[in-house]
Amino acid sequence: MNKIQVGDHVETHIAFSQDQVEEFRQRSGDTNTIHTDPQAAERSAIGSDAVRSVHGMHAAMIFTQILGTQFPGDGTVYRSIALDFDEPVLVDTDYVAEVRVLSVDRKRHRARLLTIIREAVEPARTVVYGTCLVVHNERL
Amino acid sequence: MNKIQVGDHVETHIAFSQDQVEEFRQRSGDTNTIHTDPQAAERSAIGSDAVRSVHGMHAAMIFTQILGTQFPGDGTVYRSIALDFDEPVLVDTDYVAEVRVLSVDRKRHRARLLTIIREAVEPARTVVYGTCLVVHNERL
């Protein structure tokens, strides 16, 4: 099994539909009306865009998929995650999710990874910025 | 609308079934076999318990529900979240999820919250430990 090196990275194109937001709303039980009611959105810290926004935890689920299946891949254990939601993630908008190796501790089979979501087109702002600590006994 | 104060907190009893783990596996696309294959679990950093473990992001979804509906409640915007997965969250096990106000910035309507999941019975270890930053223009 190939060892993962500092600088290795993967990118995945993602987009969320309004139907997916509704499904997450029901599954998670997070019925916060900023995602559905224009007036509630307007009163929120995000403002009117909130009504077109994806739940932050919903957007963050892309990382558990990438980590658990692609990179480092099957066998990965999540030790910690930290995420800043700098801008709302909007429905029907193209984004790129990136996972990149920042540092590796071979002795403990650990890596610190960058986990970001950025707009797929210019200005390509980073909307979700984070890092996580993962353990993989064979790839790290 | 009542303002939230430092020290205010809510607790919710939670438990995850194997069916819920399977559902999250399918919905998230995180098909990491440590949750389903005893041999893969054994090789992982968690060890054999991994096969009875809940995906970390799945467990963390309790917080988006609490924040968006209960406390601070409807209208809350998540600015950041940080979580340490100190011990695996296991299926068919009773836990308590707690959200507690650590500090409030009234000027910017922000609060720093403690977000933890602990075992419901002794030794009541904290298995997920975190904090988050939220904004609520009316309650904070």
In brief, what are we looking at here?
With 140 residues, chain A is an alpha+beta fold.
Overall description:
Two copies of one chain form a homodimer. Chain A has three helices and five strands, in the order βαααββββ. Chain A has helices spanning 18-28, 38-43, 56-69; strands spanning 9-14, 77-85, 95-105, 110-119, 126-135. In chain A, strands 1-3-4-5-2 form a five-stranded antiparallel β-sheet, with helices on one face. The longest helix of chain A is centred in the middle third of the chain and has 14 residues, at 56-69. The mean pLDDT of chain A is 96. Strand 2 (77-85) of chain A pairs antiparallel with strand 2 of chain B, so a sheet runs across the interface.
